[in-house]
Design brief:
Length: about 400
């Protein structure tokens, strides 16, 4: 096996659309024998106006082709700034980078249709690097969900010969990867389990005064609608009763949430709500997320001691974190032990960017990196499209 190291830059902008994470990663080995060392991680935020335009276009779908193209160019230039900042801080040049692997910004995902907005040629031009992008489409073509994409990297980085592990990522959407002890890649189970940050972010954008509830402090000031009501809101959305493989997009979830929130009198009928009502709504949104996560964990990790290794910005929301832990205990998941990816050497906010570096390396190697047991694809396929160095 050729074990010469190469450096890839992985880039991720998640469903929260708060900006771009870039990770310079030294990858050793090929295919299923790869290992990764994080060299540098940087984050470039989207400006508030760009973020608002993204959410508007994602939310109502109303916009001209000119607006669509302008947003694509603007968010790609943020990716370029993030990539160059990451390379500069790591002391790297474009000649050191084998490729930049980019997820793109999700604008629509309803399998078999998907849109990850991004201009790979523009990024290649501004960075001088080969670019790998559009990772979902090959899996969708093979009949899969095109998501989740990271189980291949989760298996490479976190599998253990004797311990059952769940990788739980709390971004806009909560998704998990289950790695049974000693598993092969074909044994991996992964799926979206429901909201994480997206509902509380939506409440803050539309009824609050900030982009998100930083640290979960606004939610901590409220009271949660009962757990029974949270469960009812979940059960009335058929996604939660579906069996995996399954994936979820934010606009669909927000639409359903607004309908159920009105039916359950979660919001004041007016857009302006008091701080108490805001806290009440935020804590209930976190309650819905934590209930969905607990139910997903029950399905896969109730019988054996299992390490749940968490990443993503949702773990920084102290109210969401508390409710996830408490709901897990309520479901008698006393065999679960919570930790973070940082406890295992991968910073929580860099984990998905590192994953895309590994996915990009697999593309360069011609190695299939979708996981049919997770996506539902008919077979394993090589993911991603390559744009050459300019």
């Amino acid at each position: 096996m050729d074990t010469d190291a190469r450096i890839l830059l992985g880039m991720m902008s998640g469903t929260s659309a708060d900006g771009v994470d870039a990770a310079a990663v030294r990858i050793t080995g090929r295919g299923r024998g790869m290992s990764a060392e994080l060299l540098r991680h940087t984050h470039a935020p989207y400006e508030p106006n760009l973020r608002a335009r993204i959410f508007k276009l994602r939310g109502d779908g109303h916009g001209s082709f000119a607006e669509y193209a302008a947003i694509c160019r603007a968010l790609t230039l943020v990716h370029a700034d993030a990539a160059k900042a990451c390379m500069d801080s790591a002391g790297l040049t474009s000649d050191d980078i084998a490729a930049i692997a980019v997820h793109g910004q999700t604008f629509f995902h309803e399998p078999p249709d998907t849109i990850q907005l991004f201009d790979p040629a523009l990024l290649a031009w501004h960075t001088g690097c080969q670019v790998i992008s559009d990772f979902r489409r090959a899996d969708l073509a093979a009949g899969g969900q095109g998501a989740p994409l990271v189980p291949f990297a989760d298996w490479l980085l976190f599998r253990h010969p004797t311990k059952h592990r769940v990788l739980l990522n709390l971004g806009g959407i909560a998704n998990l990867t289950y790695l049974p002890a000693g598993c092969e890649l074909e044994d991996v189970i992964a799926f979206d389990c429901g909201p994480a940050n997206c509902l509380s972010d939506h409440i803050m954008r539309t009824r609050g005064d900030a982009a998100f509830d930083e640290g979960g402090w606004r939610a901590m000031g409220g009271e949660c609608k009962s757990g029974v009501a949270c469960l009812e809101m979940l059960e009335e959305f058929d996604f939660f009763s579906r069996r995996p493989p399954k994936s979820l997009d934010v606009p669909e979830l927000i639409d359903k949430f607004e309908q159920k929130a009105s039916a359950h009198n979660l919001f004041d009928p007016y857009l302006t709500i008091t701080e108490h009502q805001l806290g009440f709504a935020l804590r209930t949104a976190n309650g819905i997320a934590s209930q969905a996560i607990a139910e997903a964990l029950v399905d896969i990790a109730a019988d054996e001691p299992t390490d749940v290794i968490v990443s993503g910005g949702g773990w920084s929301n102290l109210d969401l974190r508390r409710q996830v832990i408490e709901d897990s205990q309520t479901y008698r998941l006393d065999r679960i032990r919570f930790a973070t990816t940082a406890d295992h050497g991968v910073p929580t906010d860099a984990k998905e960017a590192v994953a895309f570096a590994l996915l990009g390396a697999a593309t360069l190697d011609g190695e299939p990196s979708n996981v049919p047991s997770a996506t539902g694809a008919s077979r394993s396929v090589v993911l991603g499209a390559i744009t050459p160095r300019p």
